[in-house]
Design brief:
Largest sheet of chain A: 6 strands, mixed
Oligomer: heterodimer
Helix content of chain B: under 10%
Structural class of chain A: mainly beta
Number of helices of chain B: 0
Shape of chain B: globular
Strand content of chain B: over 45%
Distance between the termini of chain A: 41 Å
Distance between the termini of chain B: 37 Å
Largest sheet of chain B: 7 strands, mixed
Structural class of chain B: mainly beta
Order of helices and strands of chain B: EEEEEEEEEEE
Number of strands of chain A: 11
C-alpha cells in the first residue's frame, strides 16, 4: 500500500531564505507524486506533479521538486521565500487503484518571517 | 478559470442529525472525489465516483455516508446520522480523468462541526 510521510509539521524560514519541505513516499509501483498548497480559508491548489516524464519538476510560484527513486523522496524547494508563501503544504501520492485517489501526508505549515 | 465550489462553507449540526454537503465540480470533469481532514490530521480519502456509481470507498465511508450526482452538475455527500467524530473539513475534488492521470481540482471545503 502507498503512503506518504512529511518530515516536520512546521517549518519556519526568513523571507529570502531557501525553503525545503520534505516528503518521503512508499509505493510498490512507480508513483505519481503531487504537492498541493492550502492558503488560509481556501481549497487545495496543485503546485506541481511528478508523472515520470522528468525527475525535476517545476511548479507554480517558483517551487520545484525532485523525484529521487533511490531515496524514495520528493522534496519541495524554493530558492527564496516570500511572505506570500506562508501556507500549509501537502505531499500526496496517487493510489495504484484504478480510481486514482490521492493519499496525503500530514502536511507541513510553512511560516515565513520578515 | 473554472473551479470547484462547495456549499456551505461552514455547517454546525447536532449529533444524530442528517447533513448534506454540496459540491459543483468543474463542468467537463468525469471523476469525483470526497476527502476529509479532521483537525490536526491528514487529508483522508472517503469515496470516488465515476459513471454514476461509487468506484472506490474507504473504511470510513460506512452506511451512514452516501453520495449522489442528482442532476448532472451537483455532487453531494450525505451523512445520515452525524457523530461527534464526523467533525472535520470535507473537500470535494474532480478531474477530467483519474487522479493518477490528470490533476484533481479541489474545492475550498466545508467545515462541519457536530455538537
Amino acid at each position: 500500500a502507498q503512503s506518504v510521510t512529511q518530515l516536520g509539521s512546521h517549518v519556519s524560514v526568513s523571507e529570502g531564505a531557501l525553503v525545503l519541505l520534505r516528503c518521503n513516499y512508499s509505493s510498490s509501483v512507480p508513483p505519481y507524486l503531487f504537492w498541493y498548497v492550502q492558503y488560509p480559508n481556501q481549497g487545495l491548489q496543485l503546485l506541481l506533479k511528478y508523472t515520470s516524464a522528468a525527475t525535476l519538476v517545476k511548479g507554480i510560484n517558483g517551487f520545484e521538486a525532485e523525484f529521487k527513486k533511490s531515496e524514495t523522496s520528493f522534496h519541495l524547494t524554493k530558492p527564496s521565500a516570500h511572505m506570500s508563501d506562508a501556507a500549509e503544504y501537502f505531499c500526496a501520492v496517487s493510489s495504484s487503484s484504478n480510481t486514482g485517489k490521492l493519499i496525503f501526508g500530514q502536511g507541513t505549515t510553512l511560516q515565513v518571517k520578515p | 478559470e473554472p473551479e470547484v465550489t462547495q456549499t456551505p462553507s461552514h455547517q454546525v449540526t447536532q449529533m444524530g442529525q442528517e447533513v448534506i454537503l454540496r459540491c459543483v465540480p468543474i463542468s467537463n470533469h468525469l471523476y469525483f472525489y470526497w476527502y476529509r481532514q479532521i483537525l490536526g490530521q491528514k487529508v483522508e480519502f472517503l469515496v470516488s465516483f465515476y459513471n454514476n456509481e461509487i468506484s472506490e470507498k474507504s473504511e470510513i465511508f460506512d452506511d451512514q455516508f452516501s453520495v449522489e450526482r442528482p442532476d448532472g452538475s451537483n455532487f453531494t455527500l450525505k451523512i445520515r446520522s452525524t457523530k461527534l467524530e464526523d467533525s472535520a473539513m470535507y473537500f470535494c475534488a474532480s478531474g477530467v480523468d483519474r487522479g493518477d492521470q490528470e490533476t484533481q481540482y479541489f474545492g475550498p471545503g466545508t467545515r462541519l462541526l457536530v455538537l
